[in-house]
């Protein structure tokens, strides 16, 4: 199709008539693969005589087609664009880019035309002119995206002459902007590449940097430069940034060359920005070209300083560069930065991003002696006239608080905002200063803060420095970890909270109430000497929750709006507090909330996939949505019918995110699957459809999530046993075997990586008792093979527990298979040795958990009931004695666990438990540990959830003598089996069936073992009485 005809089709695509528009779109679909179609679109885009709207349609069509089809995702897929067309596009697109004016010069013309022209434009003419200029901006951006696609795919192999075009046009004054624009895209391709992948960049730098430096120098020397100069300098800075981001090009190791660049950077950094033309609007001002230049230079200098000026670097050439930078430039940069920060003291203007970057430089300078010495004479000015004002509530905060409190809170918890915030950078500086240079500085800073508090308390209500009080509270909260460890401050924290923080919970100033709540949270774990003060703190935080109840739906709606935007531990903790407080009262809102969160999740995922800049925020918000869903599911755990209602809402998320698409949220998704398969009345077929997805991921890429996968797989087997056994399409038994055998036979798999595997085998045999005889030998063979290669005692214990489970499952069959495999003697010798091993403390070295001891008891006891033809007398004696010793150890451990639990319940009265917890936290801090990973209120944790299911983590490196665990929550098929009763009944059966054998066994027992046997028999009778009593109480309760 010729150009005029293509223009007609493109114009028809803009038609208001649906039929005409659809016909045009269909024509474009047919035309897009015809030869020279892309070239014709390019010609239309740059044709100044063509209608603007048509050019816009052409540019969009061109960009989208190139992005989708220039390089097929599948290497096997056939190329959709002929190579001849690709070649023509590469030859022509660069020339077309240079025909479009620079973006900022276009904006400058727009600004000048509207505000400076003495002959005012008519409204219509102004509107049309603005639209035209806007479209020119769009054309360049869209062509830029297409050039980026071409460079990423084709350079240097298919586009070797690109660099020559760039260097040639850098020599032409009329083409400099276009050349810089393309060079920026080219350099950015290699910004994050590894050293090997960056090799083509070295040639780019070698050929372009001398020309860039020359252009840069001439631009800096222009007197009264127009805004277009800033546009060009900014591009040069971006090219330099991408080229040095990971490695310094060898050309810059030449001191003369590097100095030439640094002289220009420092010149621009310390030179005041032009006054003329600077926008008065705050948003436009921070984006103004000359401030952008300052930002990029600060960016570059920070990167050079933090990555390449470290004297600890080992590379000889890098070390020489670091010494040169520290000696010749680091101090000069610091001086320029401090001069710029004077704007904060004098009320001048400095963009937030520039302040943030400068403070990052200062923070990194604190640890370097030479740099700190330069700062020290001005430290009071830095701390009290620059840093503290940045911590204080300001005009912009007030405007946002008044107009949109929701957005104010969101920004306060947005980690992406933190990356660019002057306030966050100021907090980081204070933290680093008191951490590395605390002597003198901490005392001075706290004295200053106390002065703020005193002036606030003494002032009348209309003269109170509310903004400074806000900043002082922020400072105190920021220094929390330091103050909790440092004398004399740690002893004064309680008084500080009572006098200066708690009163602000009732302040009429909203932002102070918010800040007081935050500070109270920071210090929530300190030890209160006066429990009335602790109660006062708790009252301040939660007393008003009863007043919340009437507006709970509206509150939750607003809260989850915030949750969908921000992923933050504090928000999750707050949600969990609300859920814990209101419990089942959340039930009426559970379905609606899950639906809202699911919608928000898909929106966040879509934004992260479509918008490169929003990728981080979108992904984090998506994680927040899933965690919020988990919290809701936990809150309704006593209402199983609600899970049936919620399931259809969650299934699309689960099906999508249990594939490789969900790797970033896999842990959170598995938590949801765990809840749905554990608390639902039964596991639906739709939920069963997730099993193949989980197993496929485990076999492919999800081995790092094996411990998390363990929980839902156990739920499937234990709560859906009939379906698990009966279904053959898919064959769940075989898929489980395939995964476990692959993992356990993998020679490269570390012992710690396969721990969940034997636990799953235990689940399999305990829940399928009597129904999977054909799997006994394969799993025994697999277990023994891995046992012989295992080094860690804990994994050995787990593998022996698998054997114990098979013996309890069917002792005759399991023992027969062990003899068939020729390993019976080997296995029992190892087992008995490990049962006898103790640590220096006298505690057992293996099988330390109650659950592990019980499994061993059941397995060994099952052997006692076998006939003499299976178990010789000598072996029976050994098994009997080992089981007795193990039962006594188990009995003592259960009794000790009950005593500890009773003591813990008593400690909860009078807040003693809180005090002990505080002591542990403070002790951790003193040891340099962090408590950031501590659980929140009822926080869902896959590990703790696994423990509820009986899966206890126990590392072999753990030398703790704590042999006790919270096994009272363990839920397995052997829960109802009392090992003492089982043992006594087995012995009684042996006595009845083979009196002679029983008599011989008893005669081999000395007084010690007879006493043990008598004690076990007595305890078995006590357990029968206790169990009967528990059943009666349970029946009466119903």
UniProtKB/TrEMBL annotation:
Compartments reported by the entry: Cytoplasm; Nucleus
Residue ranges annotated for the Importin N-terminal domain, each copy included: 24-99
Composition-biased stretches (Acidic residues): 904-935
Pfam families: Cse1 (PF08506), IBN_N (PF03810), TPR_IPO11 (PF25758)
Keyword Methyltransferase: no
Entry keyword set: Cytoplasm, Nucleus, Protein transport, Transport
One Gene Ontology CC term in the entry: cytosol
Main location: cytoplasm
GO biological process terms on file: protein import into nucleus
MF (Gene Ontology): small GTPase binding
PANTHER family: IMPORTIN-7, 8, 11, OS04G0337201 PROTEIN
Record family assignment: Belongs to the importin beta family.
Protein name: Importin beta-like SAD2
Taxonomic lineage from the root: Eukaryota, Viridiplantae, Streptophyta, Embryophyta, Tracheophyta
């Amino acid at each position: 199709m010729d150009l005029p005809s293509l223009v007609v089709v493109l114009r028809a695509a803009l038609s208001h008539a649906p039929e005409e528009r659809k016909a045009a779109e269909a024509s474009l679909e047919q035309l897009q693969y015809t030869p020279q179609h892309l070239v014709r679109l390019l010609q239309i885009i740059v044709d100044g005589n063509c209608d603007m709207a048509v050019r816009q349609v052409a540019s969009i069509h061109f960009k989208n087609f190139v992005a989708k089809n220039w390089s097929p995702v599948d290497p096997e897929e056939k190329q959709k664009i002929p190579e001849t067309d690709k070649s023509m596009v590469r030859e022509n697109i660069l020339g077309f880019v240079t025909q479009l004016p620079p973006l900022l010069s276009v904006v400058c013309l727009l600004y000048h035309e509207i505000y400076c022209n003495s002959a005012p434009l008519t409204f219509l003419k102004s509107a049309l002119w603005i639209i035209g200029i806007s479209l020119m901006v769009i054309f360049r951006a869209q062509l830029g995206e297409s050039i980026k696609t071409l460079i990423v795919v084709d350079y240097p192999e298919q586009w070797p002459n690109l660099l020559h075009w760039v260097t040639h046009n850098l020599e032409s004054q009329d083409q400099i902007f276009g050349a810089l624009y393309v060079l920026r895209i080219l350099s950015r391709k290699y910004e994050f590449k590894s050293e090997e992948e960056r090799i083509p960049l070295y040639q780019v730098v070698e050929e372009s940097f001398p020309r860039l430096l020359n252009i840069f120098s001439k631009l800096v020397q222009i007197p009264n430069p127009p805004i277009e100069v800033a546009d060009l300098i900014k591009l040069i800075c971006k090219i330099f940034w991408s080229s040095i981001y990971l490695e310094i090009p060898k050309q810059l190791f030449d001191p003369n060359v590097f100095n030439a660049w640094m002289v220009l950077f420092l010149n621009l950094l310390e030179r005041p920005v032009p006054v003329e033309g600077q926008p008065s609007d705050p948003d436009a001002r921070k984006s103004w070209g000359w401030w952008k230049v300052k930002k990029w230079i600060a960016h570059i200098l920070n990167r050079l300083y933090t990555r390449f000026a470290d004297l600890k670097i080992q590379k000889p050439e890098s070390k020489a560069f670091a010494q040169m930078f520290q000696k010749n430039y680091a101090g000069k940069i610091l001086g320029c930065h401090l001069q710029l920060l004077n704007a904060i003291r004098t009320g001048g203007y400095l963009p937030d991003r520039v302040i943030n970057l400068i403070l990052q430089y200062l923070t990194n300078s604190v640890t370097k002696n030479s740099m700190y010495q330069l700062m020290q004479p001005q430290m009071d000015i830095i701390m009290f006239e620059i840093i503290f004002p940045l911590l204080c509530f300001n005009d912009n905060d007030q405007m946002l608080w008044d107009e949109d409190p929701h957005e104010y809170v969101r920004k306060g918890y947005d980690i992406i905002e933190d990356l660019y915030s002057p306030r966050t950078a100021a907090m980081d500086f204070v933290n680093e200063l008191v951490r590395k240079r605390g002597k003198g500085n901490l005392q001075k800073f706290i004295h200053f803060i106390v002065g703020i508090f005193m002036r606030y308390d003494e002032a009348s209500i209309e003269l109170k420095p509310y903004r400074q009080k806000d900043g002082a509270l922020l400072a105190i909260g920021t220094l929390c970890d330091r103050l909790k460890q440092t004398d004399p401050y740690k002893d004064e924290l309680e008084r500080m909270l009572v006098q200066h923080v708690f009163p602000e919970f009732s302040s009429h100033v909203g932002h102070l109430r918010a800040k007081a709540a935050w500070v109270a949270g920071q210090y929530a774990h300190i030890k209160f000497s006066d429990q009335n003060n602790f109660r006062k703190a708790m009252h301040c935080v939660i007393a008003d929750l009863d007043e919340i109840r009437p507006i709970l739906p509206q509150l939750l709606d607003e809260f989850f709006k915030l949750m969908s935007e921000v992923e933050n531990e504090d928000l999750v903790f707050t949600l969990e507090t609300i859920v814990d407080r209101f419990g089942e009262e959340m039930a009426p809102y559970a379905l609606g909330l899950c639906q809202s969160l699911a919608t928000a999740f898909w929106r966040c995922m879509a934004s992260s996939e479509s918008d490169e800049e929003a990728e981080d925020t979108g992904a984090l918000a998506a994680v927040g949505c899933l965690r919020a869903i988990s919290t809701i599911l936990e809150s309704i755990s006593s209402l199983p019918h609600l899970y049936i209602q919620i399931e259809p809402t969650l299934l699309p998320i689960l099906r999508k995110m249990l594939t490789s698409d969900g790797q970033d949220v896999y842990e959170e998704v598995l938590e949801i699957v765990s809840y749905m398969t554990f608390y639902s009345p039964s596991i639906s077929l739709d939920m069963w459809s997730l099993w193949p997805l989980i197993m496929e991921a485990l076999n492919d890429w999800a081995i790092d999530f094996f411990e998390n996968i363990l929980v839902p797989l156990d739920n499937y087997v234990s709560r859906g046993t009939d379906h698990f056994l009966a279904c053959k399409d898919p064959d769940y038994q075989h898929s489980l075997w395939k995964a476990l055998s692959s993992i356990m036979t993998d020679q490269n798999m570390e012992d710690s990586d396969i721990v969940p595997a034997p636990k799953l085998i235990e689940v399999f045999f305990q829940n399928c008792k009597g129904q999977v005889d054909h799997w006994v030998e394969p799993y025994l063979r697999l277990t023994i093979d891995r046992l012989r290669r295992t080094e860690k005692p804990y994994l050995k214990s787990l593998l022996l527990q698998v054997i114990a489970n098979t013996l309890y499952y069917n002792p005759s069959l399991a023992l027969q298979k062990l003899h068939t495999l020729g390993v019976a003697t080997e296995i029992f010798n190892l087992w008995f040795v490990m049962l006898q091993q103790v640590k220096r403390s006298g505690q057992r070295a293996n099988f330390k958990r109650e659950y592990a001891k019980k499994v061993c008891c059941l397995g060994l006891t099952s052997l006692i009931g076998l006939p003499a033809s299976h178990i010789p007398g000598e072996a029976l004696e050994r098994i009997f004695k080992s089981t007795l010793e193990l039962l006594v150890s188990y009995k003592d451990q259960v009794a000790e666990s009950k005593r500890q639990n009773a003591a813990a319940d008593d400690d909860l009265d009078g807040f003693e438990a809180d005090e002990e917890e505080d002591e542990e936290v403070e002790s951790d801090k003193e040891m340099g540990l962090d408590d950031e990973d501590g659980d929140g209120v009822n926080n869902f944790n896959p590990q703790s959830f696994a423990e509820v299911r009986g899966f206890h983590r126990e590392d072999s490196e753990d030398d703790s003598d704590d042999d006790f665990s919270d096994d009272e929550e363990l839920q397995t098929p052997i829960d109802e089996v009392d090992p003492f009763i089982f043992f006594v009944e087995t012995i009684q059966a042996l006595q009845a069936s083979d009196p002679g054998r029983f008599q011989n066994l008893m005669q081999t027992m000395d007084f010690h073992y007879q006493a043990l046997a008598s004690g076990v028999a007595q305890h078995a009778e006590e357990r029968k009485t206790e169990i009967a009593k528990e059943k009666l109480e349970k029946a009466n309760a119903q």
